[in-house]
Amino acid sequence: MRRFVLALFLPLTAALALPAHAAAAAHGRPVVPVPKLVLNEVDYDQPGVDAGEFVEIVNVGSDRARLRNVDLILVNGTTSAEYRRVALTGPLAAGHRLLVATRAVHAPAGVRSIPLPLAHDDLQNGSPDGVALFDTAHHVLIDALSYEGAITAATFDGVTGHWSLVAKTPVKEADDNQEPGSLCRLPDRTDTGDDDHDWGACATTPGAANSA
Questions:
Q1: Which residue range(s) make up the domain with 13?
Q2: Which of 24, 93, 122, 166 fits a 20 to 30 Å CA distance from 6?
Q3: Are strands 54-59 and 199-202 parallel, antiparallel or unpaired?
Q4: Are residues 97 and 179 in the same domain?
């Protein structure tokens, strides 16, 4: 009798110990992969009041991405802690762009926009600060950018551990309040794994291909 009870208990224990995606597979439920997204352009500072802030995200994968478990997290470089979060929603087709932006930013036709919570001053202006795309289902940092310095031990609310927002070398260029512009990947969507190589100052192109 004792062996029979143990035989029933062990499979249950093993299932409880599996990660969420592995447990889903074990029970025949579809596994939702981590989407292949990149932060592609960030405009955090504008002349005058910062009312034109936005973050552009691109699906660089070959499949449609489901965004319901992906959050855009903003990080304060002074404390390395999260200060604001926007939950992404809906699907994003392969190759398509998504804006997380103030309402003053006009998205091109066919580009979806998710509003930032404030009319202005949503994104802090650096020295340093950062943005991150985080998969809350798998606890995976999808992509990140630390600007005006390096954030290498960021903390996210409700998540154990520390996260580097820098890939190899921090980007040297910065956004500023003297001339309109932003930080973006040059060429558009480039990701070599070195932020200083991939990111630079560019003309502001929310929802469109980046240009120097």
A1: 1-31
A2: 24
A3: unpaired
A4: yes
Is 102 in the same domain as 20? no
Q: Is 138 exposed, middle or buried (0-12, 13-18, 19+ CB in 10 A)?
A: middle
pLDDT digits (tens, 9 = 90+) for 140-163: 999 999 999 999 999 999 999 999
Strand pairing of 112-115 and 97-101? parallel
* Model confidence pLDDT, tens digit, residues 122-132: 999 999 999 99
Task: State both tokens at 176.
Answer: 């500023």
Check: CB of residue 190 under 8 Å from CB of residue 202. Answer: no
Show the 3-state SS of 45-87: CCCCCCCCCEEEEEECCCCCEECCCEEEEEEECCCCEEEEEEE
On whether residue 149 sits in a domain, the answer given is yes
Q: How confident is the model at residue 33 (pLDDT cuts 50, 70, 90)?
A: confident
d(CA 197, CA 212) in angstroms, rounded, equals 14
Q: Give the amino acid at 169.
A: T
Per-residue pLDDT band at 212 (split at 50, 70, 90): confident
